[in-house]
Amino acid sequence: MKLRELYTILKDVLKEASESPGSEALSVLTKVTSQTRERLLMNFEEEVPEEVCQLAISLAKKRAGGYPLQYITERCYFYGLELHVREGVFVPRIETEMLVELALKLIEEKGFKMVADVGTGTGCIAIAIALESECEVLATDISERALEVARCNVERYRARVRLLKGAYLSPLLPVLNDVQLIVSNPPYVPTSAELPFDVLKEPYEALFAGEDGLDFYRNFFSDPSLLARKTIIMEMSPEQEEPLRTLLKDLGTITFFKDQFNRTRFFRLDVA
Ligand code: SAM
Ligand code: GLN
Q1: Closest C-alpha to ligand 1, atom 13
Q2: Does the structural domain 3-65 have CATH classification 3.40.1350?
Q3: Neighbouring C-beta atoms of residue 39, cutoff 10 Å
Q4: Could you tell me which residues are beta bridge partners of residue 205?
Q5: How far is the CA of 48 from the centre of ligand 1 (A)?
Q6: Cα-to-centroid distance, 19 and ligand 1 (Å)
Q7: Which ligand 2 atom is the nearest neighbour of the CA of 185?
Q8: Where are the domains of the chain?
């Protein structure tokens, strides 16, 4: 079959599930042929081997069944970077790019030299900060799979990021004195929330944080003495503004920030 025909079949398979079936069909084709989009578009009249067609159609069907496209292509995009991702690791969201913006502004203003990213996933936040500033960046995660993917991304961009395994502040304890800023996009979804099918393909521990979605924050801030005089910027869900204000009121000064969709999505805590 010609590439053109295969493209049409894929687009057809994807049209129920996707808002941009043409673009997603091309993404599937780049994966199965290991060619760039530009090359594919120039070679639309070429014959495609039968086994490649079968593979492409099965991947498109998987996608149409609600499997995230990023897990099929094993690629995602964040802050102008192309990053490796795979099943078992959280796919970076566009909102989180603003967390990087907030952190970079503060790093410049305060002259911070050492930053930690807790729950780094693909390493997206840590790598973006390391590439855009002079800071030394530490990045942690509880998930070995996430750290493997993050390592691959750190090496690809030769970013100044040190990866550490462990929960909450524990992997940072030996160096915590020197850390001035902590950033994090932690799990914050309440366990009862109904998420879209494709989001449910992402790792449970990356998304859910107890009945009210606040378990991560509760544990992270359980020993405030460890955080004295540090600044923390975290992502949150818009409904969590009041509960977070209450939870963190004795720790220092809290400020909330909106995302590009005008929803309260981040807080900054300057610990006393
Ligand atoms: N920072 C990445 C991003 O923005 O795309 C990943 C964010 S994902 C919502 C949360 C990440 O935190 C996951 O990679 C998960 O494995 C990790 N995580 C969950 N609980 C953790 C904990 N207690 N300590 C450290 N990391 C944790
Ligand atoms: N924004 C994610 C969602 O799609 C949740 C991210 C998180 O828990 N950090 O539900």
Answers
A1: 206
A2: no
A3: 11
A4: none
A5: 40
A6: 28
A7: 9
A8: 3-65, 93-271
Longest dimension (CA), the chain: 67
Kindly list the protein residues whose Cβ atom lies closer than 6 A to any atom of ligand 2: 93, 185, 187-189, 195, 199, 207, 235
Q: Of the candidates 48, 64, 43, 62, which has an alpha carbon nearest to the alpha carbon of residue 6?
A: 48
Catalytically annotated residues: 90, 185-186
pLDDT, tens digit (0-9, with 9 covering 90-100), for 1-38:
999 999 999 999 999 888 999 999 999 999 999 999 99
Read off the DSSP letter of residue 218.
H
Contact call for residues 31 and 74 (beta carbons, < 8 A):
yes
Pairing type for strands 75-78 and 81-84 reads antiparallel
CA–centroid distance, 75 to ligand 1, in Å, is 18
Residue 206 in contact with ligand 1 by CB distance below 6 A = yes
pLDDT at residue 198 above 90?
Answer: no
Please report the atom of ligand 1 found closest to the CA of residue 91.
Answer: 5
Write out the two tokens for 188: 């914050």
Please compute Rg for the chain using Cα positions.
21
In the reported structure, the alpha carbon of residue 35 is separated from the centroid of ligand 1 by a whole-number distance in angstroms of 32
Q: For residue 208, which atom of ligand 2 is closest to its CA?
A: 8
Q: Are strands 264-271 and 231-235 parallel, antiparallel or unpaired?
A: antiparallel
Q: What angle do CA 144, 78, 8 make, to 5 degrees?
A: 100
| Residue 127 contacts residue 104 (beta carbons within 8 Å) | no
Tell whether ligand 1 has an atom less than 6 A from the beta carbon of residue 217.
no
Burial of 226 (0-12, 13-18, 19+ CB in 10 A): middle
pTM of the model: 0.95
Fold of 93-271: Rossmann fold (3.40.50)
Q: Which two tokens stand for residue 115?
A: 């930053």
Q: Residue 197's pLDDT is what?
A: 85
